[in-house]
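DM from R.C. (forwarded with permission)

"hey, sorry to bug you on a friday — could you get me a structure for this? deadline for the figure draft is monday and I only need the backbone to look sensible"
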Amino acid sequence: MTARVLRGPAVTASRPWGAVPAADFGDIAASIHWTDAAYPWHVNDGAELFVVLDGQVLMQWRAHDRAPVEDTLLHAGDVWSGRDGVVHRAIPQGEARVLVVERREADVLVDGA
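My reply, with the result:
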């Protein structure tokens, strides 16, 4: 395949955080995720780019285990990025679709905030 068009707001999945691959950059993947449920606290092995395409997502993060939790409500078009080691989770407010660019198999789940 030489080119492809994905309509982000139209992406659906059979389960929360189900993904449709958007692009492959070797060990980096870009996927569009559909969700209506929170993603658990996790940390990435590498940086992450998170773009809200449709809906709203409450993003929560902390720099390390004992740091205070920060948060912001992301709307369609908003971008959040986190460095390697930032503990974070995403909580959609209803249905949401997001573009996530990260290293493959990057997520490591952690205990709550």
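R.C.: lifesaver. The chain is about 0% helix and 50% strand.
me: no worries. The domain at 35-109 is CATH 2.60.120.10 (Jelly Rolls).
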